[in-house]
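Pilot study result, target chain (361 residues):
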Amino acid sequence: MKLQKWRAACSAATVLLLGASVQAAAPPDELQIYFIDVEGGQSTLIVTPSRETLLVDAGFAGAGAINSTRGDPAVARDPNRIRAAMRDAGVERIDYLLITHFHRDHMGGVPELAQLVPIGTFIDHGSAYPPEDRAKPGLVDALDAVAYDDYLPVRARGRHLLPKPGDRLPLKGVEATVVSSDRRTLVAPLPGAGNRNAACAPTAMASSYPGDENTRSNGFLLAFGKFRFLDVGDLNDQPLYDLICPANLVGLVDLYLVPHHGNTGASDPATLAAFQPRAAVVNNAPRKGGRTPTLKTLHEAKGVDTWQLHTSAEAGGHNAPPEHIANLDDTAYWFKVRAKADGSFTLTNGRTGATQNYAAR
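Predicted structure:
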């Protein structure tokens, strides 16, 4: 069933209505991935063939604005969009919640989500925003600190994992390997990787600042048979460069979530030369992420289909074609991926219902 339009100020009645549109459980030989529209944050729901769930980030709190704080979970925008995707997938709990990093567009929705659905295990890089940093003007965003402080007591109620690069997440039937965490990255190539990347610049693209939480992002490579999906959160600057230069430590991927919502730090062509994705998803909003340099790089890359959650207001002709954009206006459609162990997958645009097929390589 197609997701109906979901407005920012959704009501509890609307939530229940969407809950009636539950699809049949996915076949046991299929991996599902939902790229949920949280307006330029991140929330990605993964349902494994064994029906375990991994949610990567939970978007914003409250009404979903950049300055929103937590409120009534029944009308919280992003937690209810996540809940709608769960209903479409036919799942009722989050077995693992991975927080890529402690910014409010990634963890803000957790306290409200935890009041709507059970969450078993929390995965993150530990801690952030110590008092000495909060005292330094301009170093810590006060609302990020508020979201972090709201997140901690929720995390304390579940199991907590602190991964390091090279670790495997405890998911059944798939292999989820951590490739970055807390500014550290893989130091040795994964199996099948390690080729020298001729597209590398001499140094990393400078797109960060000292202490930037984005560079602490937990990233992982999810493998289901021959299918590969890479999500590195908002990773940029030196840690992203270290994964691809001078050698590609990750290898080829089929599906790539473009880092940092397609901001300028994700525009290095060396990333695409390394990973060679067949489909690249940008989780942007109309005026957050989806920057022209990154969309231009994607637009010019050979063999890469770009899919955007929103049309970028600034990118003009470098936007993906309309059929590859989930939201052309104020709607909240997702992208849904179904992958097979042979490496083939489909990507469906929730707005149009159209599906693109990608054969096994």
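One observation from the pilot: The chain has one domain: 25-350. A full batch analysis is planned for the follow-on phase.
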